[in-house]
Design a protein that fits this description.
The structure holds two protein chains of two kinds. By secondary structure, chain A is an all-alpha fold. Helices cover 71% and strands 3% of the residues of chain A. Chain A has one domain. Chain A has six helices and two strands, in the order H-H-H-E-E-H-H-H. In chain A, a hairpin with a 2-residue loop joins strand 1 and strand 2. Classes of the chains: A mainly alpha, B mainly alpha.
């Protein structure tokens, strides 16, 4: 899980890496990969040395939060609180208000909202993966005991 | 994995929904909304159909698989789109590469430009683009659908568990296992009768062993096992360890 989320983080920064290494197709891969999941509007995205990242500020916060939350769960495996639902509602409310034109949230606020959502989401992902590992381990032991290995 | 028989229905329905809704250009306007909702739908279907309590790990499995199926459908749709508009993508890639070279102050010789054009032709091939888009789409689809499914399990499972309790009277129903149980195997391997030492008798002239003598009345009780032969367990001789 950590590896996959790390790959996604690298992919977000792929335009910057492409500009540093003068390898333009890498940036195209990054933009192409996230196109279905993000609007990639220039005025809603972060720029590093004038180069736009592959996702918008909110999505960058979400992916960074997922990575941090999953890493946090590894060190402190605790049950997830109700704050997750609050963060989902906040992100949804912010997105809806921005789409309707009622509110224009600054990029930093959207990044922080996405970061909170992603952090709790990452902890939930960590919980699911650890529970799945426990289930698979238990079923393997059960199959070994009962002889139903195949 | 006690609700294994309900997995297929859950992630097929949800995966189809994710793939179709994400591939339609007009509807695909809410980032990962369809993917997260699709994962949630998969978990809802699982919780509704399950006869046993649904664990978070089961929700994760259903979510990941629904995301993977949705990602495959979406990637196929993208590949068709690339096959139709392949030239446009290739031109965009070429333009981006030349822009990068210009920004870095490099003047390309004409031979190298021809090589770049050939390289871009290979790179913008629908097969290669399908592979790359499919790989990254599958990762993102799987993670987001898993997230939606986990949240949905935490919301819906307590409610459906309550319905299950009201319907069946118990929270947990033991599942009959197909193979031999550990208890059955232990029963088979155990000897049917406890070990008994045979009474010391010597065959008489008829060749048959005489019946063991009944114990004397002294010191005996009228217990139902009074007539049974005495069980003598072998003892370790003195002096051994």
């Amino acid at each position: 899980m950590q590896v996959l989320l790390g790959i996604l983080l690298i992919l977000i920064f792929s335009p910057v890496i492409a500009a540093v290494s003068d390898f333009s197709p890498l940036a195209q891969i990054g933009y192409l990969a996230f196109r279905p999941f993000c609007h990639q509007l220039e005025w809603r995205s972060f720029h590093v040395h004038g180069i736009q990242l592959a996702v918008c500020a909110r999505c960058a916060g979400i992916y960074l939060g997922l990575f941090l939350g999953a890493a946090f769960f590894i060190f402190r495996p605790q049950p997830v609180s109700q704050w997750m639902l609050a963060m989902i509602l906040l992100v949804a409310l912010d997105g809806a208000l921005n789409v309707l034109g009622i509110l224009t949230t600054p990029a930093v606020a959207r990044f922080l909202l996405g970061l909170g959502f992603g952090f709790y989401g990452g902890r939930i992902l960590g919980l699911g993966v650890s529970d799945l590992e426990a289930i698979l381990k238990k079923s393997r032991v059960q199959e070994w005991k009962t002889g139903n290995i195949i | 994995m006690e609700n294994r028989e309900h997995y297929l229905k859950a992630f097929l329905v949800a995966g189809l929904l994710i793939g179709v809704l994400s591939a339609i250009p007009v509807l695909n306007c809410c980032c990962c909304l369809w993917v997260i909702l699709g994962g949630g739908l998969a978990a809802y279907i699982l919780c509704q159909a399950a006869s046993q309590p649904v664990k978070p790990g089961e929700g994760a499995v259903v979510g990941v698989f629904s995301g993977l199926i949705g990602g495959m459908i979406f990637s196929l749709a993208q590949a068709l789109q690339q096959a139709i508009n392949g030239d446009r993508v290739r031109q965009a890639l070429e333009q981006g590469f030349r822009q990068g070279m210009t920004n870095s102050g490099v003047n390309l010789p004409p031979e190298f430009e021809q090589m770049v054009t050939q390289f871009m032709g290979v790179f913008a091939h629908p097969g290669l683009l399908l592979g790359l888009a499919m790989f990254f789409s599958l990762i993102i689809f799987g993670i987001m659908a898993m997230l939606g499914a986990m949240v949905a399990v935490s919301i819906f499972e307590p409610r459906f568990a309550m319905k299950r309790v009201m319907k069946t009277g118990t929270y947990y129903q033991p599942v009959p296992q197909s193979g031999p149980t550990p208890v059955a195997r232990a029963t088979v391997s155990r000897p049917a009768q406890p070990l008994k030492r045979p009474p010391e008798t010597s065959p008489d002239d008829s060749g048959f062993a005489p019946k063991p003598q009944a114990p004397s009345d002294k010191g005996t009780s009228s217990a139902p096992w009074a007539g049974e032969p005495e069980i003598v367990f072998p003892r370790k001789p003195k002096g051994e360890g």
